[in-house]
Design a protein that fits this description.
The protein has a five-stranded parallel beta sheet with strand order 6-7-8-3-9, with helices on both faces. A four-stranded antiparallel beta sheet has the order 2-1-4-5, covered by helices on one side. The chain is globular and about 50 Å long. It is α/β, with parallel strands linked by helices and 201 residues long. The structure holds adenosine-5'-triphosphate. The site of adenosine-5'-triphosphate has 11 residues, from helix 1. This is ABC transporter domain-containing protein. Pfam families: ABC_tran.
Length: 201
Amino acid sequence: MLNVSGLACSRGERRLFADVSFSLAAGEWLHVQGENGAGKTSLLRLLVGLSPADAGEIYWRGVAVAAGESDFRRELVYLGHHAAVKDELNALENLQFSAALDGMRLDEQAALAALKRLGLRGREALPVRVLSAGQKRRVLLARLLTRPAALWVLDEVFNALDSGAVQLLGVLLGEHLARGGLAVLTSHQLLPLPGGQRLIL
Ligand SMILES: Nc1ncnc2c1ncn2[C@@H]1O[C@H](COP(=O)(O)OP(=O)(O)OP(=O)(O)O)[C@@H](O)[C@H]1O
């Protein structure tokens, strides 16, 4: 479903990586690894179309993403390294706001169910500025359950999560893959998810 070939990326004078190629079929995931500054975030941003590649091709369902005829962007959800919630909104409003930015209307019941799954029952109506760092991350992660996305692109999403949330995210990823979804993840930690391909930058 996702075929990437020969991707190259430079930042300033520095070549971060070249000839990055991988293929993911339904139900498969990729763990992007590398030292600080190796280019993991750059690769993910390039993959989701937030920055241009120096070279290479991305094909989604057999169609080149660059051609603009692919449904790729609509079929992925990206949680970036610095993705954040809006402090002045509550958890429910945050989910509805981010859905609206993606051109979706999110039903309140669906949003509440996602927040409940993330262990935020009873916290839905509080402004997120009063939530703990880990609870804010959980609000962010609830987005994964409110999008019908085939591809999850997740940059260091295990940061600031307690062991229960790490385990829960592993379960959510497992369910996503079992439904035929795909995932590309960066993490400096071992991931609570069996299988997976490794790409070391
Ligand atoms: N817009 C930019 N302009 C200049 N340099 C950049 C830019 N974006 C990234 N870089 C540089 O590219 C290199 C790779 O950054 P990137 O964030 O992709 O690394 P990473 O592997 O995700 O690192 P970490 O594990 O620390 O998160 C770094 O040296 C960074 O400073």
